[in-house]
UniProtKB/TrEMBL annotation:
Segment forming the signal sequence: none
Coiled coil: none
Residue ranges annotated for the Enoyl reductase (ER) domain, each copy included: 11-322
InterPro entries for the chain: ADH-like_C, ADH-like_N, ER, GroES-like_sf, NAD(P)-bd_dom_sf, Zn-ADH-like_protein
Protein name: NADPH:quinone oxidoreductase family protein
Entry-linked CDD domains: QOR1
Length: 326
């Protein structure tokens, strides 16, 4: 089979290439999936650069979100059949033609979703759900400010924020992306170019946002602490800007806000029952026809590094999908 393999950690992804590997055999409790689609996530890039909180020793195959068909079943697996369409969330291994996954990590693919849509769903929606519900305690009527709203996790946050009854302000660094964000249901959209503090405060009668969802970090984080409401929650999702920001401790003291870290996968590992509840909720939403991730485009596995560059250069709106069968 063909797989994208990181053979050496490298800033420029020079240690990453598509190579031939043996097709894996499922161990007891596992199934083998013929992958039809796998979405790219920013942590895939960070893993290959050695910058992610999860550290893997090369060689390894990145890829967290996949969808495909079961083509082999290991001993002791119940409830699944060869040929069944499934989705799987994993920490790595998805950017390949086949992958073996513990059956407990599988879910049946919603019939109303394509393989590409299903492969674009779990990481984004689970991240947004854990952030807004479990960590941010977002309430109906509150104002939610979503940064990086043109990305997969940002679009999911806009959707979930509206579901929860919040007023959603969504930002992007590109004016061209704002129309797509508005189409996702945001109440207000604005560019971060030139600053956003005064506009956010004007929209909230000077109070600021109650919850701020920040996968960007850097300058965006710095300005966010100046437009957050008293008792607000600033949710740290990631650092796509490349700079890990810091906050002077007098700012949350004076303004009475909290800085809250979000690691959706780790939350589920620490609290398994709540983790299962989180997945049940988002996949129940996935069964509804109005919950669909936005797929920017599809690439062949041979072009996966092109996708890495597109993601790195902020050229993707929503999710970019790798199709190993192309």
């Amino acid at each position: 089979m063909r797989a994208l393999v990181c053979r050496e950690l490298s800033e420029d992804f020079s240690g990453v290439a598509v190579i031939d590997l043996p097709v894996p055999e499922p161990a007891p409790g596992e199934v083998r999936i013929r992958i039809r689609a796998a979405s790219l996530n920013f942590p895939d890039l960070l893993l290959c650069q050695g910058k992610y909180q999860l550290k893997l020793d090369p060689p390894f195959t990145p890829g967290m979100d996949t969808a495909g068909e079961i083509d082999a079943i290991g001993e002791g697996v119940k409830g699944f059949a060869v040929g069944e369409a499934v989705v799987a969330g994993m920490r790595h291994g998805g950017l390949s033609q086949y992958v073996c996954v513990c059956a407990k990590e599988l879910r049946k693919k919603p019939e109303n979703m394509s393989f590409s849509e299903a492969a674009s769903y779990q990481v984004a929606y689970l991240t947004a759900y854990v952030a807004l519900v479990r960590r941010g305690n977002l309430q109906a009527g509150e104002t939610l400010l979503v940064h990086g709203a043109s990305g997969g996790v940002g679009m999911a946050a806009v959707d979930i924020g509206k579901r929860l009854g919040a007023r959603v302000i969504a930002t992007s660094g590109s004016d061209e992306k704002l129309a797509r964000i508005e189409a996702q249901g945001a109440d207000y959209v604005m560019s971060t170019e030139g600053g956003f503090r005064e506009e956010v405060k004007a929209l909230t009668d000077g109070r600021g946002a109650d919850v701020i969802y920040d996968p960007v970090g850097g300058d965006v984080f710095d300005e966010s602490i100046r437009c957050i409401n008293f008792d607000g929650r600033l949710l740290v999702i990631g650092f796509t800007s490349g700079r890990i920001a810091s906050v002077p401790s007098n700012m949350p003291l004076i303004k009475g806000f909290s800085v809250v870290g979000v690691r959706a996968g780790e939350y589920g590992r620490r609290f398994p029952e709540k983790g299962e509840e989180n997945l049940n909720v988002i996949w129940q939403w996935a069964e509804e026809a109005n919950t669909r991730p936005y797929v920017h485009g599809e690439l062949a596995l041979a072009d996966a590094l092109v996708g890495f560059r597109m993601l790195e250069n902020r050229e993707v709106v929503g999710k970019l999908v790798i199709r190993p069968d192309l």
